[in-house]
Amino acid sequence: MTLIDDLRRVFKTSISFILKAVKVPRSTYYYTKHSQGREYENDQVIQAIDEIRQTDAKYTQKYGYRRITLVMHEQGFKVNHKRVLRIMKEQGWTCQAFNKQTRKYNSYKGTVGRIAKNKLHRRFKTDRPYQKLVADVSEFRYGQMSQSERIYLEPIMDLFSGEILAFNISAHPTLEFALKPLKEALDGLPELPYRTTVHTDQGFQYQHKQWQKTLKTHHTFQSMSRKATCLDNAAMESFFHLMKAEMMDEHFENSESLAQAMTEWIEFYNNRRIRTKLKGKSPVQYRELANQLAA
User: Fold this and answer.
1) E strand segments, 136-193
2) Is residue 137 located within the same domain as residue 222?
């Protein structure tokens, strides 16, 4: 549009008069004017996105456009998320991992102990660290293509930031397997001016008197989902779906390699995986920032 600008300067008249004379719509003029140099800018955006995807390539290549946009904003790029999405589609960088369906482990064996009331009632948000913790068990498969072998994971999550406070991996989902991360998480809590609530489903481990005794020893409330209502523990279900989508895209021959991959991913999730809900912070970064602001 430099020709129109030159005509405006030569005849010293308004841009509207020049556009009318050359029969160019105002919208076309301003769109083209503001789009000048766009190809060069696209190259910069493409390079920035590629560098972000390579920083922790095993995991960051599974970042979606929203998370990529957050990182770019942190780096000083003023770029719209729609533009990032368009470029990622053009480059073939969009993640397809979340389209996969995963099998859910069910630890419910009927009423074998005491069923606690649902104190959470799907109120997963909280502005207080360690006020609401959730736990669940999920299975991860390995071995031959049939993937007949499996190991189990139980994490304890803080709903304030999504941080995994403790977890355990075992070949058998026993009571002792479930109690280990619970005790580790509760023993590590600081002194709080409020009581913590631990929410689970109605799995046999959580109905057991030893689980309930551990909660009582730590002056902690127990909460349980309603029977066959997975949405009552949706935060934990979402975590398992995310974990399996991002790390189970490769085949594991044995339990050792799978357990190592699971441990590494949880470390990445806690410390380096940014979340849009946490304003572009990882769970640990968000919790540390909250502690600094409260100090």
Assistant:
1) 138-142, 149-158, 164-170
2) yes
